[in-house]
Design a protein that fits this description.
By secondary structure, the protein is an alpha+beta fold. The chain has a domain at 36-97. It has 2 helices and 3 strands, in the order ααβββ. The chain has helices at 13-31, 39-47; strands at residues 54-64, 67-77, 83-93. Strands 1-2-3 form a 3-stranded antiparallel beta sheet, sandwiched between helices. A hairpin with a 2-residue loop joins strand 1 and strand 2 (67-77). The radius of gyration is 16 Å and the shape is elongated.
Length: 97
């Protein structure tokens, strides 16, 4: 991925988001065995192998013409000793100048 801050876009916003989603999807497929398009199934697959204090990239969990959404799972231990799993979601978006 490249930073385009204060630079003209090399393609339409829609094409850039599609390309970004494709790159993130490929990374997710490399990291999650039996990758499917279903985010719940991928999360269940990641939960089988994730360890405490570890994060794992799940890949793309949603896409629309102007945004790409990806998720990371993190397993941690709380102050009381309970194990918790958090989902962190990110959105990539762009706008035409």
């Amino acid at each position: 991925m490249i930073s385009l801050e204060n630079a003209p876009l090399p393609a339409t916003p829609e094409a850039m988001i599609k390309d970004t989603c494709n790159q993130l999807r490929a990374q997710g497929e490399q990291m999650v065995a039996n990758a499917t398009s279903d985010a719940k199934t991928r999360a269940e697959e990641v939960l089988k192998t994730i360890k405490v204090n570890e994060t794992k990239f799940m890949g793309v969990v949603g896409e629309d013409p102007l945004a790409c959404y990806a998720a990371v799972l993190q397993k941690l231990t709380t102050e009381t000793g309970a194990e918790k799993t958090h989902t962190h979601r990110r959105a990539w978006t762009t706008r035409d100048r």
